[in-house]
Request: fold
Amino acid sequence: MDYFVHESSYVDEGAEIGKGTKIWHFSHVLGGAKIGEYCTLGQNVSIAGGTIIGNHVKVQNNVSVYEGTVLEDDVFLGPSCVLTNVTNPRSQVLRKSLYEKTLIRRGASIGANATVVCGITIGRYAFIAAGAVIAKDVPDYALVIGVPARQKGWMSRHGHVLKDPDRDGIYTCPESGLRYKEVEQGILRCLDLDEDAPLPKDLAVGKIFYRELKK
Reply:
Protein backbone atom coordinates (compact mmCIF):
# COMPACT_ATOMS: atom_id res chain seq x y z
CA MET A 1 0.00 0.00 0.00
CA ASP A 2 1.60 3.26 -1.13
CA TYR A 3 -0.75 5.58 0.78
CA PHE A 4 -1.39 6.15 4.49
CA VAL A 5 -4.59 5.43 6.42
CA HIS A 6 -4.78 6.15 10.14
CA GLU A 7 -5.84 3.13 12.19
CA SER A 8 -9.08 4.87 13.24
CA SER A 9 -10.21 5.38 9.63
CA TYR A 10 -11.86 3.08 7.10
CA VAL A 11 -11.34 2.62 3.38
CA ASP A 12 -13.98 0.38 1.84
CA GLU A 13 -13.27 -2.20 -0.80
CA GLY A 14 -13.53 -0.72 -4.27
CA ALA A 15 -12.15 2.69 -3.39
CA GLU A 16 -9.21 3.88 -5.48
CA ILE A 17 -6.52 5.90 -3.72
CA GLY A 18 -3.36 7.29 -5.30
CA LYS A 19 0.16 7.03 -3.96
CA GLY A 20 1.29 9.41 -1.28
CA THR A 21 -2.23 10.28 -0.14
CA LYS A 22 -2.78 10.55 3.64
CA ILE A 23 -6.09 9.82 5.37
CA TRP A 24 -6.13 10.95 8.98
CA HIS A 25 -8.27 10.20 12.07
CA PHE A 26 -11.91 9.01 12.04
CA SER A 27 -12.39 9.33 8.29
CA HIS A 28 -14.28 7.08 5.87
CA VAL A 29 -13.73 6.54 2.14
CA LEU A 30 -16.57 4.55 0.58
CA GLY A 31 -16.28 2.05 -2.24
CA GLY A 32 -16.36 3.63 -5.67
CA ALA A 33 -14.58 6.82 -4.61
CA LYS A 34 -11.56 7.81 -6.67
CA ILE A 35 -8.84 9.84 -4.95
CA GLY A 36 -5.68 10.96 -6.70
CA GLU A 37 -2.07 11.18 -5.59
CA TYR A 38 -0.62 13.16 -2.68
CA CYS A 39 -3.96 14.27 -1.27
CA THR A 40 -4.58 14.97 2.40
CA LEU A 41 -7.86 14.13 4.16
CA GLY A 42 -8.08 15.59 7.65
CA GLN A 43 -9.98 14.37 10.68
CA ASN A 44 -13.63 13.27 10.37
CA VAL A 45 -13.80 13.39 6.56
CA SER A 46 -16.30 11.33 4.56
CA ILE A 47 -15.77 10.64 0.85
CA ALA A 48 -18.79 9.05 -0.85
CA GLY A 49 -18.72 6.50 -3.62
CA GLY A 50 -18.89 8.09 -7.05
CA THR A 51 -16.77 11.03 -5.95
CA ILE A 52 -13.77 11.93 -8.11
CA ILE A 53 -10.85 13.76 -6.49
CA GLY A 54 -7.72 14.83 -8.36
CA ASN A 55 -4.11 15.10 -7.22
CA HIS A 56 -2.75 17.27 -4.42
CA VAL A 57 -6.21 18.02 -3.01
CA LYS A 58 -6.47 19.08 0.63
CA VAL A 59 -9.69 18.34 2.54
CA GLN A 60 -9.67 19.80 6.04
CA ASN A 61 -11.46 18.50 9.16
CA ASN A 62 -15.21 17.78 9.30
CA VAL A 63 -15.98 17.76 5.57
CA SER A 64 -18.29 15.37 3.67
CA VAL A 65 -17.82 15.06 -0.09
CA TYR A 66 -20.97 13.55 -1.59
CA GLU A 67 -21.61 11.51 -4.71
CA GLY A 68 -21.76 13.74 -7.77
CA THR A 69 -18.85 15.92 -6.67
CA VAL A 70 -15.72 16.31 -8.80
CA LEU A 71 -12.66 18.02 -7.31
CA GLU A 72 -9.90 18.77 -9.79
CA ASP A 73 -6.20 18.94 -8.90
CA ASP A 74 -5.00 21.29 -6.15
CA VAL A 75 -8.44 22.06 -4.70
CA PHE A 76 -8.59 23.17 -1.05
CA LEU A 77 -11.69 22.47 1.08
CA GLY A 78 -11.58 24.40 4.37
CA PRO A 79 -12.70 23.06 7.74
CA SER A 80 -16.42 22.25 8.05
CA CYS A 81 -17.35 23.51 4.61
CA VAL A 82 -20.55 21.96 3.27
CA LEU A 83 -21.17 20.31 -0.10
CA THR A 84 -24.56 19.00 -1.26
CA ASN A 85 -25.91 16.83 -4.09
CA VAL A 86 -29.70 17.45 -4.17
CA THR A 87 -31.16 20.94 -4.50
CA ASN A 88 -34.61 20.07 -3.14
CA PRO A 89 -34.12 17.23 -0.63
CA ARG A 90 -37.09 15.49 0.98
CA SER A 91 -36.77 12.50 3.24
CA GLN A 92 -39.95 11.03 1.71
CA VAL A 93 -38.80 11.38 -1.92
CA LEU A 94 -36.03 9.08 -3.14
CA ARG A 95 -33.66 10.95 -5.48
CA LYS A 96 -30.59 8.71 -5.57
CA SER A 97 -30.73 8.68 -9.37
CA LEU A 98 -30.93 12.46 -9.48
CA TYR A 99 -27.74 13.53 -7.71
CA GLU A 100 -26.51 16.78 -9.22
CA LYS A 101 -22.92 17.30 -10.32
CA THR A 102 -20.81 19.88 -8.56
CA LEU A 103 -17.50 20.67 -10.23
CA ILE A 104 -14.78 22.46 -8.29
CA ARG A 105 -12.04 23.25 -10.74
CA ARG A 106 -8.29 23.26 -10.41
CA GLY A 107 -6.76 25.27 -7.60
CA ALA A 108 -10.02 26.63 -6.18
CA SER A 109 -10.25 27.26 -2.42
CA ILE A 110 -13.42 26.86 -0.37
CA GLY A 111 -13.24 28.68 2.98
CA ALA A 112 -14.16 27.33 6.39
CA ASN A 113 -17.91 26.87 6.97
CA ALA A 114 -18.79 27.89 3.40
CA THR A 115 -21.76 26.13 1.79
CA VAL A 116 -21.75 25.06 -1.86
CA VAL A 117 -25.23 24.41 -3.25
CA CYS A 118 -25.04 21.54 -5.73
CA GLY A 119 -25.25 21.67 -9.52
CA ILE A 120 -22.74 24.48 -10.02
CA THR A 121 -19.16 24.96 -11.23
CA ILE A 122 -16.55 26.83 -9.23
CA GLY A 123 -13.84 28.08 -11.55
CA ARG A 124 -10.09 27.60 -11.49
CA TYR A 125 -8.35 29.39 -8.61
CA ALA A 126 -11.61 30.90 -7.41
CA PHE A 127 -11.55 31.88 -3.74
CA ILE A 128 -14.68 31.34 -1.65
CA ALA A 129 -14.59 33.31 1.60
CA ALA A 130 -15.30 31.67 4.95
CA GLY A 131 -19.00 31.33 5.66
CA ALA A 132 -20.14 32.21 2.13
CA VAL A 133 -23.13 30.47 0.52
CA ILE A 134 -22.52 29.67 -3.16
CA ALA A 135 -25.63 29.03 -5.26
CA LYS A 136 -24.42 29.84 -8.78
CA ASP A 137 -21.36 29.36 -10.98
CA VAL A 138 -18.19 31.20 -9.98
CA PRO A 139 -15.66 32.45 -12.59
CA ASP A 140 -11.96 31.59 -12.61
CA TYR A 141 -9.98 33.66 -10.07
CA ALA A 142 -13.11 35.25 -8.59
CA LEU A 143 -13.20 36.27 -4.93
CA VAL A 144 -16.72 35.74 -3.61
CA ILE A 145 -18.03 36.59 -0.15
CA GLY A 146 -21.28 36.78 1.78
CA VAL A 147 -24.76 35.23 1.94
CA PRO A 148 -25.73 34.84 -0.80
CA ALA A 149 -22.24 35.07 -2.23
CA ARG A 150 -21.31 37.98 -4.46
CA GLN A 151 -18.11 38.59 -6.37
CA LYS A 152 -15.92 41.06 -4.52
CA GLY A 153 -12.94 41.08 -6.87
CA TRP A 154 -10.18 38.88 -8.25
CA MET A 155 -7.62 36.65 -6.51
CA SER A 156 -4.24 35.52 -7.80
CA ARG A 157 -3.09 31.91 -7.85
CA HIS A 158 -1.19 32.71 -4.65
CA GLY A 159 -4.37 33.82 -2.89
CA HIS A 160 -3.91 37.59 -2.90
CA VAL A 161 -6.47 40.22 -3.88
CA LEU A 162 -5.59 41.75 -7.24
CA LYS A 163 -5.96 45.53 -7.23
CA ASP A 164 -4.57 48.72 -8.77
CA PRO A 165 -4.25 47.63 -12.41
CA ASP A 166 -1.84 49.58 -14.61
CA ARG A 167 -2.85 51.70 -17.61
CA ASP A 168 -3.18 48.52 -19.70
CA GLY A 169 -5.49 46.91 -17.18
CA ILE A 170 -2.84 44.47 -15.94
CA TYR A 171 -2.86 43.33 -12.32
CA THR A 172 0.29 42.01 -10.64
CA CYS A 173 0.29 39.52 -7.77
CA PRO A 174 2.25 41.12 -4.90
CA GLU A 175 3.81 37.81 -3.89
CA SER A 176 4.60 35.96 -7.11
CA GLY A 177 4.86 38.81 -9.60
CA LEU A 178 2.60 36.91 -12.01
CA ARG A 179 0.48 39.22 -14.16
CA TYR A 180 -3.25 38.98 -14.80
CA LYS A 181 -5.67 40.72 -17.13
CA GLU A 182 -9.42 40.73 -17.70
CA VAL A 183 -9.35 39.60 -21.35
CA GLU A 184 -13.12 39.96 -21.63
CA GLN A 185 -15.61 41.37 -19.17
CA GLY A 186 -15.80 38.88 -16.32
CA ILE A 187 -12.96 36.66 -17.63
CA LEU A 188 -9.55 36.96 -15.98
CA ARG A 189 -6.45 35.17 -17.27
CA CYS A 190 -2.85 34.87 -16.15
CA LEU A 191 -0.51 36.34 -18.74
CA ASP A 192 2.58 34.47 -17.57
CA LEU A 193 1.39 30.93 -16.85
CA ASP A 194 -1.31 28.74 -18.34
CA GLU A 195 -4.16 28.02 -15.93
CA ASP A 196 -3.59 24.28 -16.23
CA ALA A 197 0.18 24.44 -15.76
CA PRO A 198 1.70 23.70 -12.35
CA LEU A 199 3.45 26.45 -10.46
CA PRO A 200 7.22 26.55 -10.98
CA LYS A 201 9.05 25.13 -7.98
CA ASP A 202 10.39 28.52 -6.92
CA LEU A 203 6.82 29.84 -6.66
CA ALA A 204 5.27 26.78 -5.01
CA VAL A 205 6.40 27.63 -1.46
CA GLY A 206 4.95 30.67 0.31
CA LYS A 207 7.49 33.06 1.77
CA ILE A 208 5.43 36.07 2.89
CA PHE A 209 2.57 36.28 5.39
CA TYR A 210 -0.73 37.39 3.87
CA ARG A 211 -1.13 40.26 6.33
CA GLU A 212 2.23 41.74 5.31
CA LEU A 213 1.01 42.13 1.73
CA LYS A 214 -2.47 43.27 2.75
CA LYS A 215 -1.16 46.50 4.25
Remarks:
- The first helix runs from residue 210 to 214.
- The chain has a mean pLDDT of 96.
